Amino acid sequence: MSRIVVFGAAGRAGVRVVAEAAARGHQVTAVARDPGRLTALPAGVRAVGGDVLDPVVVTALAKEADALVLTVGGSDPGLYAEAVGVVVDAVRALGPGGPRIVHMGGGASLLDEQGVRIFDAPGFPPAFRDSAAGQIAALDAYRACEGVTWTYVSPPPVHFAPGERRGTYRTALDHPVAGEDGQARLSYEDFAVALVDEIETPRHLNRRFTVGY
Questions:
Q1: Coil, strand, or helix at residue 202?
Q2: Residue 21 has what DSSP assignment?
Q3: Cα 200 to Cα 17: distance, rounded to the nearest angstrom
């Protein structure tokens, strides 16, 4: 059993990560800025009101965790890299015994078949540019940091939505996991499966990976 703290636990991905981890018997702490949104949590999950940008909150939770999971989001593109900075500082201060960081990233930093970053390819939707840039900055921040153990998990860049839990998926590193139709697809439920699998059996320490069917 691992002690897992999930920031952004009221969001679409966060609620599923909390449910998946709790169903496997892990000790889970669900964190949201508005604790009133943490409704219908699985039995045994602790609800905490807190902001991932608050060093005091993050440090206190990091001291009692084996893994800090970031499933945060928002309209401010600077949120993602700022969150990385706060969490990395808190974990680094704890030394070698500090928790691992597992970050739900974006798919725009993945590479297309020509090796071009999807964010830079023609036709990238303007409506998603700010948040995508923020997640790219977060990945860059992890790659530049030292003294912590992190994993950045990218979902498919387009076909990623709530759905069914199949319990199966495939992984890759920097290119989307495409199916027979050439498209990368995944449900939020199976993203949660992959993320908790990675916590239980680490295979991508200090690197990014992506998942799809």
A1: coil
A2: H
A3: 13
The domains of the chain, with CATH numbers, are 3-212 (3.40.50.720)
Q: Which residues of 119-144 are buried (b: 16+ CB within 10 A; e: fewer)?
A: beeeeeeeebeebbbbbbbbbebbee
According to DSSP, residue 201 is labeled S
Q: How many CB atoms sit inside 10 A of residue 206's CB?
A: 15
**22-57 b/e with 16+ CB inside 10 Å = b?**
bebebbbbbbbbeeeebeebeeebebbebbbbebeb
DSSP codes of every residue in 88-145: HHHHHHTGGGSPEEEEE--STTSB-TTS-BGGGSTT--GGGHHHHHHHHHHHHHHHH-
Residue type, 115: G
Which positions ≥6 away from 65 have C-beta within 8 Å?
Answer: 3, 4, 5, 29, 99
Question: What global pTM score does this model have?
Answer: 0.94
Kindly report, residue by residue over 121-145, the tens digit of the pLDDT.
Answer: 998 888 889 999 999 999 999 999 9
The token pair at 50 is 């807190």
Tell me: the pLDDT tens digits for 172-213?
A: 999 999 988 889 999 999 999 999 999 999 999 999 999 999
